[in-house]
């Protein structure tokens, strides 16, 4: 199977996964959602309140390190095989303009469209309309990762009441139309920071698109007006100068001149060369591999120090994420001390006042109660109360002691009466007068 077909299959799998993910629920919670409505983060069926976002830095670190690890080990596979910019360009250029409207030829991406014909102009506007429709679908799908689908579609029944959400969608659509239709592949070259720094990750042991000039001959421009007119020198000169690899390149480079920053590792040039050289009974001159193995026949170890460090970093991120996920509390308790340190009541007891907030993050209704684990501390004011799922309540909590000198740390146990295994411990400070 050609690299192009493999890429299209990869695009299809990624597109289906991304479109479906906002609608997948595990135990009533979303698989992945960063809700701007409820200020919650849903991950693999677990719900984290904004006070529990400690899991997110490790997920972001995993994503950031993962992209660079992928580049170090396999070259720019992200750019050519998973980047939304690349996928959207393939949809617009290859699916809409080439396959549906016949405005382009799939084997020649360098030839511009001739807009002198009226029929061509009509097709161009039709392609633009189709992409605008797809852009709205993409924008809505993107917003579903931040607004729960069940809430989003209710909001859209009265869009005039949710203008901020509407403006977000229109802004995304405008960006997608400008980027994909007008900016095209120049986005990768002039805007995307990753395309600039990725070259620092390359060495002779990094997989990349390699032109075997030992067989095809090194080349240089013969005519500055055309990148297709080239001369060859050195090597076995097996290259037929058919220029199929140049014509098919979506980023308009000549891979025979060596790896360039614009290359996105799509490997369409390798497919084109394989077709031509296959007719001559020879292998392609363009490979996906490391320079040492292709040009020097030198096998490099995959587990080199750099790759080991990347893999170790990813494992550490996964372990930290798993640890904090396991430490997730069944409900949230927040205790704040008021501005008054302490006071003495009519019975001579030392009294401390607190503002208590309990958030029931579970999907069931619970009645929450508490007890003090310190023997010399008593509860002067607190009553058990019930909370519906996702509800929270603030109340005043007052603790007292007959002793003037106590351990400044007080341990409290909060629990659900319906199930005492659902419990949370908190340690707070208790202020009392000195001798």
What is the overall silhouette?
elongated
What class would the helix/strand composition place it in? alpha+beta
Number of strands: 18
End-to-end distance: 84 Å
Tell me the fraction of residues in β-strands, as a range: 15-25%
Average pLDDT over all residues: 83
* Share of helical residues: 25-40%
Rounded to the nearest angstrom, the radius of gyration is 31 Å
Offer a concise description of the structure.
The protein is of the alpha+beta class. It has helices at residues 3-20, 56-74, 77-81, 84-100, 118-143, 149-155, 163-183, 186-190, 194-197, 213-216, 244-247, 268-279, 291-295, 305-326; strands at residues 25-26, 29-30, 32-35, 40-43, 46-49, 208-211, 218-223, 226-233, 286-289, 332-337, 343-344, 350-359, 366-372, 378-381, 385-387, 392-401, 409-416, 419-429.
Report on the structure:
This protein is an alpha+beta fold. The chain has helices at residues 3-20, 56-74, 77-81, 84-100, 118-143, 149-155, 163-183, 186-190, 194-197, 213-216, 244-247, 268-279, 291-295, 305-326, and strands at residues 25-26, 29-30, 32-35, 40-43, 46-49, 208-211, 218-223, 226-233, 286-289, 332-337, 343-344, 350-359, 366-372, 378-381, 385-387, 392-401, 409-416, 419-429. Strands 10, 11, 12, 14 and 16 form a five-stranded antiparallel sheet that branches. Strands 15-13-17-18 form a four-stranded antiparallel sheet, with no helix packed on it. Helix 2 (56-74) packs antiparallel against helix 14 (305-326) and helix 5 packs across helix 7.
